[in-house]
Structure formats: structure tokens, C-alpha cells
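Q&A log
Question type: sequence-to-structure
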Amino acid sequence: MLAGEISNDMVNEDPLKKFEIEVHNRILDIVVESINKRFIKHRQLYNDLSCLSPSYFLYIIQNGLPDQALTTLCDKLKSLNSNITYNGLKDELIHFAKNWDKLKKSLAESFATTYSLELTQDEEDDIESKMNPESQNMTCKSCKNCVVCCYNILQKCNLYCDAYANLFLAYKYVLTLPSTQVSCERSFSFLKNI
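Response status: OK
Response body:
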């Protein structure tokens, strides 16, 4: 034993240090190991889902998509739509990423920009709620930088019919995946209420 070290059989008398060693560090190790076990087998799917986030769009525009991106997601989506192809999904995502800055402007914002109208925030919210009443149920309040906003814009502008049909299905798939166990339990609670 070196000078200043505590051997295993010596009792640590500081209660805070003892709590940190015996409780805090053990719980932290269990949490990290549990997260690794739970998410490591779906690692490629999570990587594919991260490509759909608007925060990743700048990287897509500058560098393109990685070679293996969207392969696992495309395989999952084939069970929902047999016509979906890897290249089609990839091309739609790249095109959508390039046009995201134009598409994320709501119709009220583009109208105000085009005609130089000065609307108050209440008037813009009122116009937005009249144009898309379903978006009020979503958790996002139009941050225009999340997956929910992408889905809403595709739906609001009817881009899911022809232009981005595969991408719309991918966003729908992402939003129906429960991200935590709490989401699963909440959905069962809703089913019980129904």
C-alpha cells in the first residue's frame, strides 16, 4: 500500500465519502450498464432515427448521408409499405434537408413575409390554430427544430402524398415508437380508459 491509500479492510469514516462509494457509484454503474444493455442491440436503428432530426440537416447538406444510414429504418418500413426503397428514402431526406429552411416557415409567416404584414403574436397563433387544429395536440410548440415539427410541416403542406411519401412514413414511424417505458405504460393507461 502506498502512502495515503486506504486499504479495502479500512473503514472510511467520512459519511459523505462512504455514501458516494457505496451508494452513488454503485447506482451510477447499474444505470450505465442498464442503458447499454437496453439500447446497444438497436444502435443502428437509433443512428438512422437521428438522421431525421433537423439538427442533423446541416451535416447532411454539407457531407451527405453516411453509407449505411437509413438501412435499418428502411428494412423496418418495408413491413408497412413494400414499395419503399432505400435510395428513394435517402433522396427524399437529402432533398427535404436542403429545403428545410424554406419549408419550416409556416404559411402565416410566409404570408407575412411576402406581403410585409405586421401581425401580433396572438394573430399569428390564431391563424396557425385555424389552419392546423391537429397540431395543437402535439407536444411541440412550433420550435421548428424537432421531429414533430417536420411531421407537422409535411402534413400541413400535403407533401406526404407524392413529394415525400417515404419520408412521411419514416417520421410517422419515429413518432409512434415509445422512447421510454413510461410511454408504453401511459398508452396502456389510455387503453384502459377507452
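Response note: The chain is about 60% helix and 0% strand.
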